[in-house]
Amino acid sequence: MTDCNPCSTPVDTQAKLSEDAGPPVAAPTAYRSLAGRTSHMQFSRSVFICMIHDPREPHLTALKRLLRYLQGTMDYGLLLHRSSSAKLVVYTDADWAGCPDTRRSTSGYAVFLGGNLVSWSSKRQPVVSRSSAEAEYRAVANGVAEASWLRQLLAELHSPLAKSMLVYCDNVSAVYLSTNPVQHQRTKHVEIDLHFVRERVAIGDVRVVHVPITSQFADIFTKGLPSAVFSEFRSSLNITRGYS
């Protein structure tokens, strides 16, 4: 596909692929090989790898779109710049019940240290979430866990953080749960994540803050976005052209 027409985004805004969508591919071995070669990509891992056992034509079309996006962005790279700030900032998001077959949600986070993107993730949640707040809170817990590990690493490198880590979430209920000391009946099944995040908030390591969806950069790891929004968020992650 070296001569293919590039795509502006890796997936379209309606990319909800079920396991039995369309006819089987003519060459399933070639699909598996191609999907395996893209398994290092965060978004690819949660969308295409789960379709390996019985690939269908829509899966192959979506995979080819991803390759077309890569073809058009081969000269893009992650820019790291010198910064006097040592603040950890995390953006977390979840696409609630995004998988049409299992109804499991996709979690994503982006961790910035001093304005530089240093860690990111996109993966299916291991269990089905009963509400969007639950899915978002699991994403918050994943982001807090990663940021806590980075905080500990910085301390071991004799560069401890002087301020609390900021965790941005666009779900008001999830933000409220991070500080609410009451264990409600409807949240008992996420009790471990609740206690983990609340403990970090209580000791002052973390602050969970609401962010509008227009500034939720982690959206890029959980769902298909319109071209203009995708380009804006990609730029906010310090992904720039000029690395060929």
Automatic annotation (TrEMBL):
Annotated stretches, region: Disordered: 1-24
InterPro entries: DNA/RNA_pol_sf
Bias (Polar residues) ranges: 1-16
Identification of the protein by name: Uncharacterized protein
